[in-house]
Design a protein that fits this description.
Shape: elongated
Strand order of the largest sheet: 3-4-5
Length: 127
């Protein structure tokens, strides 16, 4: 049997019923500071109004703290080139959206070609 998710001793259902300021009281210090100062941010209000998990939410805001009301939703976060899909899971609470939308491609090292130097073995990873 799978264990029920708990964050600071509260179940996910309890967390989702909390207001943003109540959640800020149990969040870590960095997230608490952000949420207390920005609790009336239009992005958080848009998440509250968006009841359907299927509706597309696109944003350039990488500095948004993930709250319990975002769990289960799909958010498209801009990485500087394109919008990347971020499916919000309970384990992501109190992290920034930008942590899950990487801005750089991973380097894959390969074999150097004919006449190439050894430093040219770094090749950008393909999707």
């Amino acid at each position: 049997m799978a264990e029920e998710f708990k964050y600071m001793g509260h179940s996910l259902e309890e967390l989702q019923k909390m207001s943003l300021l109540d959640f800020a009281k149990i969040a870590n210090s960095r997230a608490k500071r952000h949420l207390v100062r920005n609790h009336s941010d239009p992005f958080y209000e848009r998440i509250e109004k968006n009841k359907k998990a299927t509706k597309k939410i696109r944003t350039h805001r990488r500095d948004i703290i993930i709250t319990p009301k975002m769990v289960g939703k799909t958010i498209y976060v801009y990485n500087g080139k394109e919008f990347l899909t971020v499916e919000v899971m309970p384990d992501m609470l109190c992290h920034y959206l930008g942590e899950f939308a990487f801005t750089r491609k991973r380097i894959k090292h390969g074999k150097a070609g004919i006449g190439a130097t050894k430093s040219s073995t770094a090749v950008a990873a393909r999707k």
